[in-house]
Queue: 4 jobs
Job 1
Amino acid sequence: MHRILLPCLPFLLAADWPQHLGSNRDGHSSETGLSRAWPKDGPPVLWKRNVGTGWAGPAIAGDRLILFHRVGGNDTVECLNPTTGKEIWKATYASRYVDDFNFDDGPRAVPLIADKRVFTLGADGSLRAWNLETGVGIWDRNVNKDYGVEKGFFGTATSPMIASGKLIINVGAKGAGVVAFDPATGKELWKSSDDGVSYSSPVVGKLGDEELAIFFTRNGLLALSPDKGEVKYRYPWRPRINASVNAATPIVSGGRVFLSTSYGTGAVVLEVKRGKLEEVWMGDKSISSHYPTPVLIKDHLYGIDGRQEGGQAQLRCVEWATGKVQWAEKQFGCAGLIAVDGLLIACAENGDIVLIEPSTERYKELARARVLDSPVRALPALSGGKLFVRDGKKLLAIGVGKN
């Protein structure tokens, strides 16, 4: 059992985690001052809070933590103090989403905190904006109903993104594959493409000479100008079987973009040459990301290879330039990953949190602790020397700063 403590943490360089995969949507945190070793029974649990269902990880900005979950028949947005776990405000609305596979009826998408607002996207397509300070609803609309989107395998799970002052989402309808909304009013600003919706969340990155909104849709790579929605690049990349998902977020670095999925398809790295996307490397032997997104540390990818089912997924280190596998840790299982302060933190599906040195030579585990109950599918968050992790029943704040 973990002790529930409120220790005084030393000074750290703290950073927000205001959206999917952190400030830059790449799984990296700029925090420093983290511990390289944990006590025998694991790092201290600073606070614990019971939660409802859902797979949405928390988002943190300053003294506000946003928890998006389902309690009974209501999707619930709660604002908590990240230091104490105490509630600041709570807002609810009725949800009729029922998962076809009886996995979970709660929301999946990580909330977005931007411009003193909170944006949430429920599993039924309910897109809403809230006042960050008070929790008052600003606007709401249901994108699945508005654009005639059919219910997917596991509900709506893509996390919203702000780019060029617009709230941009892979909606997935004909003529409205990607839609940009006014963050202040929810009004449609532009719509583009026929691409179906995936479970991946978009990023902003530079391809060629432009900063673009980059999506891994149901069809593959779609790169658009965030200002007007003009399609700049496409690249088909999806499994052949219909019963499949694209879920990992694209990774953009040095003018190249990485996509990965499972189901015998694998990964591809692309770059712009002579005005079009060309393959740098591709195939199913390097890394096939079923759900979790890898992190790029210097010139190597660290990520989960293999299907979530069956417990056979591996943690791998792969060379960014070539796709060469440097090492693989078998039966690691699926995990959300955070790169921070020269370390790699994994929140595994079995309930373990794992501290890893991101070596290119071999797998180097520094510490491990069981803190949650399986299955864990919500992404972790890191802010103020605290690791925030949740399963289907509880949210924990864990002290990972130096004691």
Job 2
Amino acid sequence: MANEPRETPGERIEVARIVVGPFQENCFLVREAGGSGCVVVDPGDEADRIAERIDERGWKPVAIVNTHAHLDHIGGIQELKEKYGIPLLLHEADEPLLRSAPEHARFFGVAEPTVPAVDRRLSDGDVLDFGGIRLEVLHTPGHSPGSVSLVAGGRVFVGDTLFEGSIGRTDLPGGSHGTLLRSIRRRLFALPDEAIVHCGHGPDTTIGRERRSNPFLRESSVGTIE
């Protein structure tokens, strides 16, 4: 079923996906293979469902790491913070988006989320080590000013920067089409072709597949990117 989590074994980590909320956003649970601790990436909504999946596996959340702070990625944060006593990590440039989430919710006609406190600010080049779960932070702005991608074990969690056959929208506050293309080409396309891309919406893809066939990223469609 589309809303059920999907586990993807890797050499060092396991990934479970849970599709949540009216925007069908992908929340990911990431843990070291065989371990019990897990990192929650982008808990966008339905914190109760996310917690149920965590608890039924006997996993122990150690942190929430958000790729960015748009409304559809932050709705479950506060409840999970309170339930598990874990910190939220977010890039400083997206804190204004986080604070404006209730306003955006009213615009879209959805429930207003509680705005959580940021416990640690992410920076480009950070290596987050959560007891065997290592996430390298790449600042990949464009979809939002503080968007980051998280590299772990031959995988990259890109939020809404890159999708299968598409790219993130840039018509929201803080978006920049040129900046987004530079982030993808300079940061994401520097990763190996076989790297698995976990997107904020929709299916997984790979860096090589998007490099070869993404219509938004062909040279003829983007020109020279400085």
Job 3
Amino acid sequence: MATVGEGIGGVGTAPPKRLRRERPGKVAILRAAVTVMGEDGYEGASMRDMANRAGVSVAALYYHFPSKHDLLLEFLDEAYDVILRRVDRRLLGAGPSAGERLDELVGTLIASYVHDDYAQLASTVALREFTRLEPAARQAIDSKRFLILDRVVDVVREGVESGEFTVERPAEVAFAIVGLCASIIEPWEQLARPMSEVIELYQGFARSLVGAPRRDG
């Protein structure tokens, strides 16, 4: 079908170009592979299954990722970087009170975990399969996971120092809040509730954990 501005058989009409299917890049291959891991688990996901899902040869997959372990490590390394950048960006725009900052943290973590189908699968892989990493690789990923936890610890301690929060063990409570946010991933589909509603509910849970009043409205 001709579009506006195109000639049909007229002078200057370019010959039709043959459509060429672009090969998926490394990011698309990684995304497909993580989807397979999310569906079948790390042990159940084969490199062949991942290549098939990505629409590439097994050789092409190995070209980018020499092993399944390397694939998992690269995914986790990038995934936690993305979440950490998002958390820091949202904290910069959060309100001045510790309660507002805690709400922002909870909302950002939950939205990061379940904002679409791929995010849910990727979050499942990140939280379930990081133990598959070899010790040195796991240590590197753990350091990034702890950076996210540190952001929550800092906000809880701010609230304690300002008198907004009444907990005696900020680090332990922060750990519980991070776990609370992650707990939404598995039952998400069964909840069948709008994300905004779930986030508000979990923000209330987090405020209860730190001994702060629930947000008005």
Job 4
Amino acid sequence: MQLTFENKTIDQLAIELIQAYEPPGGYYLGFSGGKDSVIIEHLARRSGVKFDSHYCVSPIDPPQLRWFIKEWYPDVSWDCYAKGFFKKILTNGLPTRRRRWCCRLIKESGGFGRVKILGMRKAESETRKSYNCFTIPKNRDNATGWVLPILTWSDGDVWQYISEHNIATSAMYRHGFKRLGCVLCPFHGRIEIKLEMELFPKIAAAWHSAAVRYFYKRIERGTPLPFLTAEDYWQWWISR
């Protein structure tokens, strides 16, 4: 199918994009429960293509997010690739912005050999500004291609589409969250970190415990971290 851009709305263009790259076996749709993923799921249904939606279960996602997916998207498959996640910190250390091994384990493990529909947008990060609406991932994903229907959408576009089509979203957005996802994600700022530690103390405690264990594991290996105490290491990490 040839895409034309004259007199088309952004959602019409997104639907045409999805239809143009439809693989014979159907799409793998990456579903996180956030505002972007509910939109691509809605667009995929409107487009009439074959697809199956998958939530990669994360041990560090807010429980409210899981509740939302279970209630509103019961047909989404729950795939578990991150079992023993906190134990892996003993080997890898706490993830950072430059060494974000957690995403590969949790979010990017599914869809081997398939074309994925994903809700990435350029407005979310500097890295994503270089992406195209159809991207072949290199050295970071098992997929054969990414179709990114809302890549150029702004936050305003996202919320307008959700409003116009009366799409349900997680209540977390109405409690001050701008983006949903892993608690204490390395890309979250200090204000978000503080809020998440207050709202999700059990997940924060699991992160803290893993940090302490890794600190002493490095001492046992003879390769200590450049911090005097485990608490110094933890405070450095959450300070971003």
